[in-house]
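queue> holo job accepted (FE2/S2 (inorganic) cluster)
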Amino acid sequence: MLDRIALTLSVNGEPREIRVAPMTTLLEALRTELALTGAKRGCNQGVCGACTVLLDGRPVRGCLTLAVAVGEREVTTVEGLAPPGQLGRVQEALEQVGAVQCGFCTPGIVLALEGLLRETPHPDEDALREALSGNLCRCSGYVKILEGARRAVEAAS
Amino acid sequence: MNAFVDPLGASPARLEARDKLSGSARYLDDLSRPGMLHAAIAQSPHAHARILSCDVSQAAALPGVIAIVTGADIPARRVGGMVKDETMLAVGKVRYMGEPVAAVAARDAETARLAAQLIAVEYEVLPHVLDPEAALAPGAPILHEDQAQYVRTMEGGGSGNLVWQAVLAEGDAEAAFAACDVVVEGIYETPAQYHGYMEPNGVLAEPEANGRVLVIASCQSVHHVQQRVADELGIPMSQVRAQVPKVGGGFGGKHASNIHSICAWLARATGRPVKLALSRTLDMEIQRSRHPARIRLRTGAKRDGTIVARHAEILLDGGAYADESPNVMTFAMLMVRGPYRIPHVRIEGRVAYTNKLRAGSFRGFGNPQASFAGESQIDELAAKLGMDPVELRLKNAVQQGDRWIGGHTLTTCRLSDCLAAVRDAQAAAPKLPAPRHGRRRGIGFASLTHISGLMGTAASVHMRADGTIALNTGCVDIGQGSDTVMTQICASLLQVPIGQVAYAAQDSDLSPYNWKTAGSRSTYMTGRAVVGATEQVREKILDHAAEMMECAKADLELRPGGRVGIAGVPGREVGFREVAMRSLFKSGGPIMGFHGLVYDGERFDPKRALMQRLAFDNLGVYTFGAQCVEAELDEVTGKVEVLRMFSAHDVGRAINPVSCEGQIQGGIVQGLGYALTEELVWDDDGRLANPSFADYKLPGIKDVPRQIVPILFEEPEPTHPVGAKGVGEISMVGTAPAIANAVAQAGGPRLRRIPMTPERVLDALEP
Ligand code: FES
Ligand code: FES
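queue> job finished
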């Protein structure tokens, strides 16, 4: 086994010290070292988007990002979007329209949309589809997810 | 206090939505235990081989390895649905590439995987067979030499590579064909589809007090998991406890699985918790797929469009183990006539073993295959007759009160309304912009049929000391929303807000029996149990209240918010809390209700139809629907794109309309993947060539039409106390034929094989 490396990640606004193997992904570090299990492992190959988290506000795939490569950047996971018991704007909108079925894709979808809205507050339909094009959902057929996304945009304006 | 809103029909937000949205919902791989070990699987590198020896010494010597189990260590008890042919690890032989031959428990997942690779198995490679037709031909390599000795719950097949064979007939098809004016015939082929639940399968097993083992599984029924684990381990069910965390999708793929027993075995052997969370690739290699099908179909009609005869030969590829094959085949046979009044029908079904991953249950359960053939051919018939395909369907559509093939009565049937509704909705919708140059546009239709019902289930309802309610059922919510629906039913009958009903997670020690989340049966079957149990509680509440208020029970009424009053007399009331306290401390004992039932509707009528070796003889109530698709075919690239869809469903009473819509939209898109992109492919050696989401293409958001319009017909189902039927599967079954029909209507080729990939479309376009 290769030696573990000590590093400090800034996660949801807090500095967190962890020791990880050089090849440990951010997804693994969050889930096993920090017990933040909101980001999911759907494929571990960069295809499904269930592992999406924000790095300095931009959506990235946790399964394709090495923990050691995160550096100073701020990591936001789904757990960090709102205080306990509350929901952020995207979460709220998805709940209202009934876009959550099995929920396994949900944290990734929430963060993909959150990332989009931070950069583009008034995205059009194509931009919404584009932002979600890397997130697979097997349950919903995406219809209500898009409905929720539109509602989140409206709520923000 | 806000005015009370009856939760029935009101689409409250899912109970667990906030947990799922905030990341606090726990799925299997989110669970961990102190001292927990991780398991890994050693897999067969051959599609068919004899196991000569298995040397685990190198693996066992790896630091961190705690236990290893191989096929030689297990009791070798064969399990399965109707044919008991499968062991949790291969014993003596491997029958598909990737089949588990051994498993390791180690301190961490990486060590377990390394150790699994160090297990040295010596094989004698045997010839293999991948095609079901070839598997049934004389001289084919035989997968299960001992098949004749296997335990089966009824006769049907059992020799060579034939898993099951059955015949279903009404009238005299051969004679009728001779008198038909028009006959169409074709062979329709459908692929192995992967369930593609976003959460790969997983299990955590741990030793419990008194020598029991707790199996926490991402599954569709704790009772089914409990039963299979006990069966495979050779211990009584009382020694096995099964629980389920949140489940990230199932679609029929998460019934009891070999991995549950493997982990339970390792937990018992090590005395420690053991987790096995499958990688996506492993999940695709060792779990289940939809049955590939080859259906030869012939339909005959009079010149006026009256359909007279249909003949189907269905051949399913079951893979290496029977699993649900006899049942899937039976259901495909029952669906292939279609929802039409066809007096003369003959259907022959066979399933063959092949050296591939087992095929099993998957949303639609044989019906998507049957419907692709049947509904494609209706359009071919319409073309040959020069008739409008919707008119042809309407002319022959079954109606309420008609009999299904085999004799079941259709208690409700809005098929004709659904067909007309999608046609009219499409006609009334704003016209889409004209197709770009080089693209042809077409409109395609399909009729949909499914059932909801099957087997046993139960519910219990308890009143707590403060008058709130605890509801227990064995029905697992795999994402479809049954937790919320059951709670809505219970809350509605007691007229309390859903927040006053606590719905318990399933635990085989505590939950009343439920067969499975399958067969579109949760709302229809478990929903009935919830009604029965809740009504008992309501009666007991009224009994107490009558004594407390010293009046006749008949004079009492429930009032919204958990109160009982005298009808017509405002003011005088007792609350559920007082009733509960009285029952607990003074009189009567704790208030609870329990109701269990088994689907006991009509059996098939042997006088009406010839039925040989069908795997079951009652089903459930029938549900109907219709699909309309607007699609475009790109003549240069061969790509088929769906622009807009309309989908009408006869759902009975919709308890949660938003969830119904979600089921319909999700099912349609799963059908879209089935139609256009999804196919598990094996190479000539029997290796699964595309076990990853990179190579197996699920529909993404850009593949989905911009408009999917669900239309609900709410005709209350008389056999359900609140009028509901199931809607979980039916939306899946018609998408592929509707798209194929749209392509043909556009002047494109008639595609009888799915998925309709660009290559296949271009091939078919070649002059
Ligand atoms: S788990 Fe990272 S993309 Fe699927
Ligand atoms: S809700 Fe199940 S995968 Fe999206």
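queue> Chain B touches chain A through 55 residues (CB under 8 Å).
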